[in-house]
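Reagents: none. Just compute today. BioF2-like acetyltransferase domain-containing protein.
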Amino acid sequence: MVKIEYHSDLKEVQSDGQLNQLLSDACQHAPFDRLAWWQLLEQHCGLSPMLAVARDEDKAAVLALAGSDGHLTALANWYTFRFRPIVTDDQGPLADLARELVGRAHRITVSGLPDEDGSASLLETAFKSAGWLVEREVRDTNHILPVNGCDYDAYIAGRPGKLRTTLKRKSNKVDTQILTHFDADAWAAYEDIYAESWKPEEGSPDFLRAFAQQEGDAGRLRLAIARPAGGGEAIAAQMWTVEGGTAFIHKLAHREAAKPLSPGSVLTAALFRHVIDTDKVDLVDFGTGDDPYKRDWMEDVRPRYRLDMFRPMALRNWPELGKIGLRRLAAKAKRG
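Predicted 3D structure written out:
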């Protein structure tokens, strides 16, 4: 007998032994799949959670959603590399959850879905089998480096010549430090550097600091600072995390005034050396976005999908479904 439940209070989930265990770092080896991540999104980013859970004995499926007014979205934002359903086996009771959600929403939109692990196809199949109309499209890219057992020297030898020349010329002009714990002074330096960088204003500094502290406590943080050789104020900073054989590159910034020293490139190289030779990771994940500089460091690109699920008989969906129909006709005419 499948039991369906919804949680808008994440403290309820934390007090549920089975569910809390499923969504803990003991079972989930990427930050975006954990209850702690969703709690930070609620506390610091203004997202209103609605965890949809289906359980059948020892099987479970969890879909972390947010929103109201009948249109639900993923419990995720710009800090989230990817979003996926959490299941205990191939599908678990995910299809049961999709059928029950008919009474909770007229439309569900989720982005950032991977499919190298089958997540996008799994969710698409579950909702289609429950009678939803599903639109699937590629909406983003994810740059990665499969390490394939090589050491740092072998890795860097395969980078573009321009990057290798930059590192050779500038590395002795920049000192780097990599911390594996949270340090308040280093974090203050990161925030100061970010404010003087080319980056847009930080969406939620409180979220990022809380996440860094959390990962530092767990030993997963790699917080790196660069300074001019011989000392001086910090001129570049980066935040990575490492777990489950993967290094995740979350944030990087350098002072625009220090650009001639290429401190960002030198610091990135130092972190690659650390995660490859010391942490022995299998994969480096540069998150989403097709920024040209990522291609210098990474070797593969994976698509990230958006699924738009519509209840076909819901009147509120008809204008959007009409637009989709027109786009399909236009695309067909163009191909023809």
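The radius of gyration is 22 Å.
Action item: order primers for follow-up constructs.
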